Amino acid sequence: MNPAIVKAVLDSPLSGVFVTLLAYRLALAANRRCHGHPLSNPVLIGVLLVLLWLWLSGSSYAQYMNGARFIQLMLGPATVALAVPLYGNLARLKRAALPLLLSIGIGGAAGMVSAAGLGWWLGLEQPVLVSLATRAVTTPIAMSLAGGLGGVPELAAMFVIVSGILGAVLAPPLFRLIGWHDDMLLGVATGVTAHGIGTARVFHLSETAGAFAGLAMGLNGVFTAMLLPWLVRALGLG
Amino acid sequence: MMRCAMAGDGMLDLMLWLLGYQLLGEVVVRLLGWPLPGPVLGLLLLFATLWLRRSVPATLQRETPRFLGHMSLLFIPAGGALMAYGPLLRSHGWQLALILLASTLATLLITALALKLLLRGRHK
Q1: What is the DSSP string of chain A?
Q2: Exposed, middle or buried, B24 (CB in 10 Å: 0-12/13-18/19+)?
Q3: Are B25 and B41 in contact, with CB atoms under 8 Å apart?
Q4: pTM to 2 decimals?
Q5: What number is the average pLDDT over the span B91-103?
Q6: Which of B7 and A171 is assigned the larger pLDDT?
Q7: How many CB pairs (< 8 A) connect A and B?
Q8: Which residues in chain B have Cβ-Cβ distances shorter than 8 Å to A153?
Q9: A106 with B114: Cβ contact below 8 A
């Protein structure tokens, strides 16, 4: 094809928006075709399709994000919107406020320590370790934390996405296997472990699980933002 | 026709609510220098508003599930960044995959177990 046309298409912010929406639409169709099987997770398939597009078209990540960042921008309003289902669970929230806060704190600490600890044991470098420690919080928090503490923001974003997909894929079957059938339990654990991607997944299973996942994601982000700088200094990683 | 227009207004009103609270959150966080992300404070402020009002406005009640039902879409762009890490993934890919898998499983189980034990303690 005419190189001028190819360049015009790749440089337009519209192609990033269009490709993302199309990848999501195809991923949804695949997810429905597979009757919602965890491995047909829409984020997982959507990301793979976008990577395929980047590879086939020769488009750079910067060119793609030129448009795709408008979609990413909606993550803020989506986070705010989680207040609505959360309010719907006000009664349960009131009854279990202290256990919720404590378990989210414990889970958040476990998330940071397990990732950074394993990385240290396997001999990875310090910027990678700091980035690993942020893997359980939502993308914008992870990126700003990693950047401020001597990690690599883009690496943190990658760990966050992979963890989110892993958590979203693993949590529901794992809980079924163990026989824990409480939507609150599933929601909180998924929110702490797999932030927004996990929240999006369990929201489809039950609105209650989604609401608690959103709460857990938000609070874990806050805890991590306060704890991690202190932890990095204490361990001398920064 | 009429119903169509109303549905469109619903999404518009939802965006005004959400962007308004996010903006409020961002401004407060920046002015006070809190380590909290703006959208998370926005979530807490909207939650506090609903609590004080003791009800959810009809627009929010109706439109929020429709909006959140497509939350997965919003995470796809960041996944494209994977492309930029070819070299690191080739040299340390297996180690990193193993770490993320183990840490994800550990965090899921520890969080759920902690909550289960803490809730049991309360019922007694």
Answers
A1: --HHHHHHHHHSHHHHHHHHHHHHHHHHHHHHHTTT-GGG-HHHHHHHHHHHHHHHHT--HHHHHHHHHHHHTTHHHHHHHTHHHHHHTHHHHHHTHHHHHHHHHHHHHHHHHHHHHHHHHTT--HHHHHHHHTTTS-HHHHHHHHHHTTS-HHHHHHHHHHHHHHHHHHHHHHHHHHT---HHHHHHHHHHHHHHHHHHHHHHH-HHHHHHHHHHHHHHHHHHHHHHHHHHHHHT--
A2: middle
A3: yes
A4: 0.83
A5: 90
A6: A171
A7: 283
A8: none
A9: yes
Query: Mutating which of B49, B83, B89, B103 best tests the A interface, going by the most A Cβ atoms within 10 A?
Result: B103
Of the partner residues B64, B81, B92, the one whose CB lies closest to the CB of residue A158 = B81
A226 band by pLDDT with thresholds 50, 70 and 90: confident
| ipTM value greater than 0.95 | no
CA distance A201 to A37: 11
The per-residue pLDDT for range A141-166, each reduced to its tens digit, is 787 778 778 888 778 888 888 899 99
For CA atoms B27, B28, B32, B33, give the dihedral sign: negative
- Candidates B51, B43, B48, B50; CA nearest to B21 is B43
